[in-house]
């Protein structure tokens, strides 16, 4: 008996000839908040659906609460709350009906569901919207309702597939706040995202995925420490001159990345680098000193940006 | 598909670009369209024409002609109407709601009215195709008696155009597609289909139901068709009235189609 | 009182036959449909009845004036009496096919409703059975409505006609089971269009509108192989009170359809719901 709620070895998913998940290993421990970070098409959703026992793996092994999802789908799903990438709320029903009907799918008693609904409407800040049909909700409200719905069965693991993609900044912050509270309550979270700030905010530990493979695994801070410097200097010279300038800049930093619109110079003290190059008579159009982020980790690991 | 042409060039041809896009879209379904276009007339003529015809002709002739002959122009006009509806209702709902393509097209210099007219023209292309095939099948079944029965092709297309224009307007106006489908198809289209003198003369219905025929483009087109395919006796005034009614419906339908398209795109 | 958790409820069924497909809660899917049904417009609800009734008036009473009486085996009956059972069988077919093909396809691919259901501790068989059961319940209500309208008009001469109601549910079950099995093999709206194309000849050549004896023997053999013909014959036998062994044959046809349909639907459940 392990304390890991989820344990995967060589997990693979093919769609026809196409390999979406190419043999990955990972585990999720009880109470932790685990993230899958990667660009679109990395295979995050495919992995999530396999964990959620709604899609069958085509290779490798996975155990969720020590059970094989191919054999014990309903029993495993009773432990899970699922927030899919695209909302699939029941558009023919109201907010409250959505929650009630969903609770019944789990076989929960109606008195239990009714109490739970009050708590969840409050949690999702949807008390006033209880009798509104789902179509009339904003994107952020729909997302919160989907999360509330996933919580109706008091799941041990909450699965969130890109919980804030497509939301405006304010709606995202409300959602992060709600998820943070769940985390504090000890709910195990499995989150996918292609936003580094989201991963940094919410995840204790994450894997970086690209093209169906896991490129690295650690805490956000650990990943930054391993794969990047403390700080980054971003400089721009105009798109024609960036390549030419990079030759001259190379010697001033630990590592350099030339993007189409800017140059990233990695160093532990970026301020000093900036001073140095200005002393050399190099004057970028704009310059910016910032801390390293997961974006830099991803760039280092794959040579590409997270959001393309 | 993106349309990026200078406004000056687009203006007169905008509708044609939209029509071209719609027809390209239909071409993806061409196997199905051809199969339905040929299959439908055969199946209807064999079953209702021959099957029900056997029951009727052994009793009495309607209008003094075999039932198949009586039925043929009504089926022809009805096929045109069904085709015209198919190619306006779904593209409109799709364009506004499901796929939201129209909003993309509208962000180019192409206007709402050009989109409406373009969808209409594409629908008419389909109607012309299927009516022509239908007429050929009717001919093969020997359901056409006059030498000028081909004139029933344009009258049927006329009916198809009327419905296409009306549906274009309605589908753009109605935002609740679920209700729209159910309501329009079951409470409007179906009664019009059944009670427009399609399967039996309007006069066989109680007088208080006969108005259904009068407001139905299907009846007017069918009467014209019967005049043209087997020489049903109809006075000149009535012939004029039928043509006038269809013309009014077509013009009013197109007017509202253009108006509702423009309005909904501006939302 | 101790309230069972989702996990306890799911674990109760663990180890039983088919526990990965069926959680024993098809009812919760019906409950969802009932909730949606309650809040839909009464017009939509009513419209389920209207189609066969309109056909009955147009053909039975309109066209019927030109047809007069029809001879079926040894009975001479009016045309309206002749087509009423045909229309009942046809509307049972149409409703069941719609629910098991378009409706399932839509909830699968467009509204993704089933993805939501299957993220819970329901199994795919709960969803399939719940949907079929709901379709049948609705079919039952519509059949009762139709009989309630046509019986007072004298279009159901025999008391055996009461059995037309369960018979039309049987017919609906057969078509729904086959329809769902077919939907599991379908991946595009184009292919859905082909289903409608296949239904048309069944509708037109079922014997609902005229005795199929007008066609040559060889064509009749083909028609008699089609399921709707058996549905029409079964219900017509009951409404006319012509009870004989052939009715069992017609009913048997649907029992086989149900068995085959359910067999393939179950076999394809993973393909249908867990792609
Ligand atoms: N049902 C499917 N059929 C075929 N290909 C799929 C299917 N689902 C996902 N894919 C493909 O698998 C790859 C990974 O998809 P997904 O797991 O959704 O990635 P992510 O969630 O990281 O964006 C993509 O290239 C996608 O096109
Ligand atoms: Mg995804």
TrEMBL record, chain A:
Compartments reported by the entry: Cell membrane
Cellular component annotations (GO), alphabetically ordered: plasma membrane
Alphabetical list of InterPro entries matching this protein: AAA+_ATPase, ABC_transporter-like_ATP-bd, ABC_transporter-like_CS, ABC_transporter_ATP-binding, P-loop_NTPase
Listed SUPFAM superfamilies: P-loop containing nucleoside triphosphate hydrolases
Predominant place of localization: membrane
Ranges of residues in domain ABC transporter: 6-236
PROSITE patterns: ABC_TRANSPORTER_1, ABC_TRANSPORTER_2
Gene Ontology MF: a single term: ATP binding
Keywords (A to Z) from UniProt: ATP-binding, Cell membrane, Membrane, Nucleotide-binding, Translocase, Transport
Family: Belongs to the ABC transporter superfamily.
PANTHER family linked to this entry: ABC TRANSPORTER ATP-BINDING PROTEIN, ABC TRANSPORTER ATP-BINDING PROTEIN NATA
UniProt-recorded name of the protein: Unannotated protein
Automatic annotation (TrEMBL), chain B:
Record's keyword annotation contains Metal-binding: no
GO molecular function, one term: ABC-type transporter activity
Domain (ABC transmembrane type-2): residue spans on this chain: 32-264
Name listed for the protein in its UniProt record: Unannotated protein
Membrane topology summary: Multi-pass membrane protein
Pfam families, per the entry: ABC2_membrane
Compartments where located: Membrane
InterPro entries in alphabetical order: ABC2_TM, ABC2_TM_bact-type, ABC_2_transport, Nod_factor_ABC_transporter
Automatic annotation (TrEMBL), chain C:
Nucleotide-binding recorded as keyword: no
PROSITE patterns in alphabetical order: ABC_TM2
Predominant subcellular localization, coarse grouping: membrane
A Pfam match: ABC2_membrane
Example GO molecular function: ABC-type transporter activity
Residue ranges occupied by any ABC transmembrane type-2 domain in the UniProt entry: 43-272
Keyword rRNA-binding: no
This protein's UniProt keywords: Membrane, Transmembrane, Transmembrane helix
Residues annotated as transmembrane: 42-64, 76-98, 132-153, 159-182, 194-212, 245-265
Subcellular location: Membrane
Protein name (Swiss-Prot/TrEMBL): Unannotated protein
């Amino acid at each position: 008996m392990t304390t890991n709620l989820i344990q995967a070895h060589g997990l693979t998913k093919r769609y026809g000839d196409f390999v979406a998940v190419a043999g990955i290993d990972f585990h999720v421990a009880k109470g932790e908040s685990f993230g899958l970070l990667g660009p679109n098409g990395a295979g995050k959703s495919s992995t999530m659906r396999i964990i959620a026992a709604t899609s069958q793996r085509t290779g490798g092994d996975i155990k969720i609460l020590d059970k094989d999802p191919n054999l014990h789908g309903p029993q495993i799903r009773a432990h899970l709350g699922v927030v899919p990438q695209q909302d699939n709320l029941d558009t023919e029903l109201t907010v409250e009906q959505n929650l009630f009907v969903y609770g019944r799918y789990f076989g929960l008693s109606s008195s239990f569901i009714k109490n739970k609904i009050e708590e969840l409407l409050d949690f999702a800040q949807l008390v006033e919207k209880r009798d509104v049909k789902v179509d009339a909700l904003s994107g952020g409200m729909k997302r919160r309702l989907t999360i509330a719905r996933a919580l109706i069965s008091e799941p041990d693991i909450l699965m969130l597939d890109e919980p804030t993609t497509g939301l405006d900044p304010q709606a995202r912050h409300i959602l992060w706040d709600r998820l943070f509270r769940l985390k504090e309550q000890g709910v195990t979270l499995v989150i996918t995202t292609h936003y580094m700030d989201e991963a940094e905010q919410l995840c204790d530990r994450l894997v970086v995925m690209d093209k169906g493979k896991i490129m690295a695994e650690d805490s956000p801070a650990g990943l930054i420490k391993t794969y990047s410097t403390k700080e980054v200097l971003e400089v721009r010279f105009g798109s024609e001159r960036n390549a030419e300038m990079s030759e001259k800049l190379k010697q001033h930093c630990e590592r350099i990345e030339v993007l189409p619109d800017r140059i990233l110079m990695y160093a532990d003290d970026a301020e000093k680098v900036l001073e140095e190059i200005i002393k050399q008579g190099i004057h970028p159009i704009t310059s910016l000193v910032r801390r390293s982020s997961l974006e830099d980790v991803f760039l280092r690991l794959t040579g590409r940006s997270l959001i393309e | 598909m993106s349309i990026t042409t200078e406004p000056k060039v687009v203006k007169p041809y905008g509708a044609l670009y939209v029509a071209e896009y719609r027809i390209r879209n239909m071409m993806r379904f061409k196997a199905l369209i051809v199969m339905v276009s040929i299959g439908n007339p055969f199946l209807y003529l064999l079953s209702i024409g021959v099957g029900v015809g056997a029951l009727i002709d052994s009793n009495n002739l309607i209008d003094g002609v075999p039932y198949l002959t009586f039925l043929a122009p009504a089926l022809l006009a009805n096929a045109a109407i069904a085709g015209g509806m198919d190619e306006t209702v779904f593209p409109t709902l799709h364009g506004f709601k499901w796929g939201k393509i129209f909003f993309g097209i509208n962000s180019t210099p192409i206007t709402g009215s050009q989109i409406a007219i373009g969808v209409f023209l594409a629908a008419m292309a389909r109607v012309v195709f299927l009516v022509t095939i239908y007429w050929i099948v009717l001919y093969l079944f020997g359901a056409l008696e006059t030498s000028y029965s081909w004139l029933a092709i344009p009258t049927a297309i006329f009916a198809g155009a009327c419905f296409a224009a009306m549906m274009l307007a309605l589908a753009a106006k109605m935002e609740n597609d679920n209700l729209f489908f159910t309501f329009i198809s079951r409470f409007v289209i179906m009664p019009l289909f059944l009670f427009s003198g399609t399967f039996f003369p309007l006069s066989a219905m109680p007088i208080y139901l006969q108005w259904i025929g009068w407001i139905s483009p299907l009846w007017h087109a069918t009467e014209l068709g019967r005049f043209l395919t087997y020489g049903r006796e109809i006075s000149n005034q009535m012939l004029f009235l039928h043509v006038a009614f269809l013309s009014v419906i077509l013009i009013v339908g197109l007017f509202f189609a253009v108006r509702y398209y423009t309005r909904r795109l501006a939302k | 009182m101790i309230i069972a958790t989702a996990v306890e409820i799911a674990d109760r069924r663990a180890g039983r036959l088919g526990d990965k497909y069926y959680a024993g809660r098809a009812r919760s899917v019906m409950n969802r449909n009932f909730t949606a049904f309650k809040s839909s417009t009464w017009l939509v609800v009513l419209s389920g009845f209207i189609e066969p009734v309109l056909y009955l008036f147009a053909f039975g009473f309109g066209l019927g004036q030109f047809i007069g009486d029809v001879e079926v085996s040894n009975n001479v009956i009016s045309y309206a009496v002749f087509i009423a059972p045909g229309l009942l069988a046809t509307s049972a077919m149409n409703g069941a096919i719609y629910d098991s093909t378009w409706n399932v396809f839509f909830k699968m691919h467009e509204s993704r409703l089933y993805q939501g259901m299957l993220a819970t501790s329901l199994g795919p068989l709960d969803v399939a059975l719940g949907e079929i059961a709901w379709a049948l319940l609705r079919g039952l209500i519509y059949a009762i409505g139709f009989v309630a309208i046509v019986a007072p008009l004298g279009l159901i001469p025999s008391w055996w006609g009461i059995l037309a109601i369960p018979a039309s549910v049987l017919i609906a079950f057969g078509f729904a089971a086959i329809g769902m099995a077919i939907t599991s093999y379908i991946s595009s709206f184009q292919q859905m269009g082909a289903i409608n194309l296949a239904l048309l000849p069944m509708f037109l050549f079922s014997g609902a509108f005229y005795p199929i004896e007008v066609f040559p023997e060889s064509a009749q053999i083909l028609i008699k192989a089609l399921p709707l013909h058996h549905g029409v014959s079964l219900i017509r036998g009951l409404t006319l009170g012509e009870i004989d062994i052939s009715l069992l044959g017609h009913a048997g046809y649907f029992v086989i359809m149900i068995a085959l349909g359910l067999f393939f639907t179950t076999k394809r459940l993973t393909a249908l719901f867990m792609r």
